[in-house]
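Possible regression after last week's pipeline update?

I re-ran a chain I had predicted before the update to compare outputs. Posting the input and the new output here so someone can diff against the archived version. Not blocking, just want to make sure nothing changed silently.
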Amino acid sequence: MVQSIIFDMDGTLFQTDKILEISLVDTFNVLKSLNEWDQEAPIEKYREIMGVPLPKVWEALLPHHSIEVRERMDALFLERLIDNIRAGRGALYPNVQLVLDYLTRNKIAVFIASNGLKDYLAAIVDYYHLNHWVTETFSIQQIESLNKSELVMTIIEKYGITHGAVVGDRLSDINAAKDNGLVAIGCNFDYAQADELLHADIVIDDLHELISIFMVE
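New output (post-update):
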């Protein structure tokens, strides 16, 4: 019996794509104004690596820039993302609240484990009132290794989880489930990769499918 479900945030619960482009363009426009960038914002490159911790994102997007510049852009990007969340420009995926309500009403504990930063996750949770259903949200910032499997292990140990599932769109979510003896549910959503989803125990095209998967007698 599944007693806990751990959700990824970006590309699983939250439609990051709705605020990604405008936030990234704003950030790289600042870099342009400093004469440290002369191209379009690398939106497609970001989409390819979506789901990895932000320090690794900036290594990939700005491989020839200094750590100081990467950190400055990281902070600015986070600021722009949060501004856009609070302005209502983002959105949850369809059926998020319906599914979370069903799970919690049926005594299935809900958690979030994300490679997003604490302030970013808090902005989403607060704006959409997710704490009504979510027991606790965990950020990769809490794990020195930036390893999602270890983040999920932290949740398991803190809450004594013996049966559960991880729901997410990328291989890091699938591996986090399998490394911890949980069911791996892959979301075939915006950022999902077909070769990664092959490793999931179950693949869904809509979160509503979780209701039938975890139907309580």
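Follow-up from reviewer: compared with the archived run. The radius of gyration is 17 Å. Marking as no regression found.
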